[in-house]
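Shape matters. As here.
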Amino acid sequence: MRVSISVLLMSFVFSTQAFASAFDSLNDQKLQEQALTLLEQNAASMRLTGDVRAEEKLTEILAKVQAYNDEILTRLSEGQDLENMTSAVSHTDTKCSIDQGGKSAVCNLLISYRPLGETNVRFHVDLDDAGNAVGISNTADITRGD
């Protein structure tokens, strides 16, 4: 009897952890989407620091990401595969890390290019009490890699 209760208890613990992980993942996705939306909305007025090329603007960097997303949506809606895409962007990923106080987050938009190269856009967002991104810093830091 003890063994079956232990097994039942362990399966409950694992299912609870799996549910919590899935819930956290949905919250992370929501925050990343909100942060990226704020970045796009405020890109024209944000100051760039770091590895910035002459006359480069954040709006130009984000336009490449938008063109990549548009190409994916077009290909999928037309039933095409995603091989041999024409976009110079090969992959994008947004990750946000909430600070310990829960009032702000540091976000990174990583853009990978074909055949190689990366640009990372690092920015800070302000969070409300529910953990939603409600504001954005006026500076984005650019780093690059090969």
Remarks:
- The longest strand covers residues 89-98.
- The mean pLDDT is 84.
